[in-house]
Amino acid sequence: MKKYIKKVSLFLFVCFVILTAILLKYGGNIDHFYNKFTTPKAKSMILGDSRAMQGIQPEILNEAIKSSDKDYELPMYNYAFTIAQTPMGPPYRKSILRKLDKETKNGVYILSLTPWMFCSGDDYNDDLGEFREQDQPPHNMIYVDVNPNYEYILRNLNLFSFRHVFKTNYLLHKDGWMERKKLSKDEFSFNARKKVQKDMITEFLDYYKLSKVRKQSFYDLIKDLKKHGDVFFVRSPIDLDILEIENKFYPEFDNFIDSVATSNNIRYFNFTRHPKLKEFSNYDGHHIDKKGGELFTKALADSILSVNQ
Amino acid sequence: MIFNSVVFLIFLPIVFSIYWLLSKKSLKIQNTYLLIISYFFYGCWDWRFLFLIAASSLIDFWVAKKIKASEKKNTKKAFVGISLVMNIGLLGFFKYFNFFADSLVDLFNLVGFHADYTTLHIILPVGISFYTFQTLSYTIDVYRGKIEPSNSIVQFFAYVSFFPQLVAGPIERATNLLPQFQKKRTFEYDKAADGMRQMLWGFFKKVVVADNCAVFVDQAFADPSMSSSGELFVGMIFFAFQLYGDFSGYSDIAIGSARLFGFDLKQNFAFPYFARDIAEFYRRWHMSLTNWFKDYVYFPLGGSRVGLNKKIRNVFIIYLISGFWHGANWTFIFWGFLNALYYVPLMLSKRNRRNLEIVAANSFLPSFRQGYAIFETFIVTCFIRVFFRADSIEDAFLYIKRIFSFQGNTWGNLDKISIAVIVILLVVEWINRKEQHGLAIGNRPVYVRWGSYMAVFLIILFFGKSSTSFIYFQF
């Protein structure tokens, strides 16, 4: 028995070492979210869905706003996921508070908002505390700041694709920003990707309904974050036809965000009405590409700085 | 809890460690413990069905005792009848009720009578096709005097519910497995080490071969009218490997897990894709089911020791029942029918027992003739399997028709990884074709063994995919 345990332990140990090495070196290539749970607690954060995860680059923000008179506690951390994981709600709020460094007094919190983040489908009853995102990361995680994060592996092994070590088409940076790579730039590919996004969002129209519980959780989150610094609302730039679908679903969205912003003394930067909207290039009508993201993030940083001047 | 889940990978070492810690105590403790964890394992799917398996076990335990105690043959027969009615009845209700009701309604409508009924929402208890056959074999073997009835209810319940093979086999005979529950198990290094190797190979077959092929197969079968002939042909070939990887992978993990606990389960797959004819193929594919049908249906019907007509009838009965066992759908029955059609000429020409030994037993490579026979058997079984996979017989015919329409000149988004892993599978299994499983390399030098373990682990890690089920769970 001893011989058996020794040999099996040796085998498992070697496997464990290999796995750890891969996680440390390629954690940002083999899973869309893994790296987000391997960094220390954050003092300043970017929050939202995939538009924020891919569109707002913390490195640029850090560089730009470190000169602010407000002397914000940096660095920024992109703790945005996708609409499947991070609609507003108690689960996301709880996870944000786990990732947040509670000692922070003067942080920056950018909430990238879309109408879909305030919605629920019929399959789950929000009033009873049932949320469609509850079994997904980051909500099925307790530890969000350990490296390597074995808890994430144990709970979300099915999300990993280790073969991406050889062929990467995305990179989740250590600051939480996801960079899409190797995207074909021809018009045909763009239109094909855009069609996928439009079809998805059109399906949302029938599926989603606004949720009071999610809105309440949004108010709660604002209160929580304001204790630790300044909060800003952002609506990311997207193509006009996708924006039209969103506005058809929730025509009062901007008014709603405006009113919440006003009542909480928060600034709302609506980039869907930005004069340079077309310069914020995207790769599918919905998600900003690397270059567009640089411009957008700089513009966002300028907006934040202008508030503080 | 499925084998290819993190939960199982945590469950197994814990259960294994506690089991061997208890092993110093007594047989009763070993069996009681195995019974508890087996019920826990099964309860993870749906705890309500624990009552069903317990009731089924209890009745067969009682029936077997009554058979033994009865002196008159008719009384013994009556008790076997109770077991048959109960087990087949359970299977019939949970698996086939809606099929029969639907078919009856269709028949009435076809002859002009208007009939209607509402389908019952019956959930198929996972593993029911496997454990009912297992308990049936027990009562029949007690009746036939091949085995003594179990005196311990714990032993018998543990035998029926033994967790590695409970959900999708191998269907273990009482004559093989029950005696192993009657003897205290002691830890054997070689057995446990080989069990681990077999499990590792099973994981490779399931998460690498089957789950990679599944992506292409699902696309091809989703709407054959949208795919080119090339895509459909590849989809059909990949389905053969998906099914083999999925089911034989499950069997390898089950047999390997059982060996960790000191049990020897019967081999369920003996490299069927190296078979040279359909008869050999089914002697090597899902062997526990084939042998079950042979012993409890085919031989009682007279087998091949009857007149020509009856011989042919028996073959059709076996294959049709086998098809029906797989599922309540006409596609499975038609699949069985085609298998019988393929088998009968072989039997009539008395060539069905020509290939009893593994191919190229005395050489490394097969002869050209053997290679051609393997290829032909494989291709024909692939075409027959289209009926196994398609949603309806019409869909299957459409699928095959489109293959031969030679429309479209693409092979689709052919995944090179799937092809590579199929080649690895075939090469490794060819090398070890005389062994019990593909990774039976216990007698090889240490660097070959450890090199192989690490290579398989890395392939699983890098090229494995995750699915949430095994195909045979639905049967």
Notable features of this structure?
heterodimer; A: 309 residues; alpha/beta; Rossmann fold; five-stranded parallel beta sheet; two-stranded antiparallel sheet; 10 helices; 44% helix; B: 475 residues; mainly alpha; 18 helices; 68% helix; cell membrane (chain B); Ac/AlaTfrase_AlgI/DltB (chain B); MBOAT_fam (chain B); transmembrane (chain B); acyltransferase activity (chain B)
Order of helices and strands of chain B: HHHHHHHHHHHHHHHHHH
Low-confidence stretches of chain B: none
Counting helices, strands and paired strands, the structural category of chain A is alpha/beta
SSE series of chain A? HEHHEHEEHEEHEHEHHEH
Q: Note the gap between the termini of chain A.
A: 72 Å
Percent in strands of chain A = 5-15%
Q: Approximately how much beta-strand content do the residues of chain B carry?
A: under 5%
**What overall form of chain B do the CA principal axes indicate?**
globular
Number of individual domains of chain B: 2
How many E-type strands of chain A?
A: 9
Mind describing the biggest β-sheet of chain A?
Answer: 5 strands, parallel
Number of strands of chain B: 0
What's the pLDDT, averaged over the residues of chain B? 89
Helix content of chain A: 40-55%
| Major interchain interface with per-chain residue totals | A-B, 20 and 18 residues
Summarize the main sheet of chain B.
none
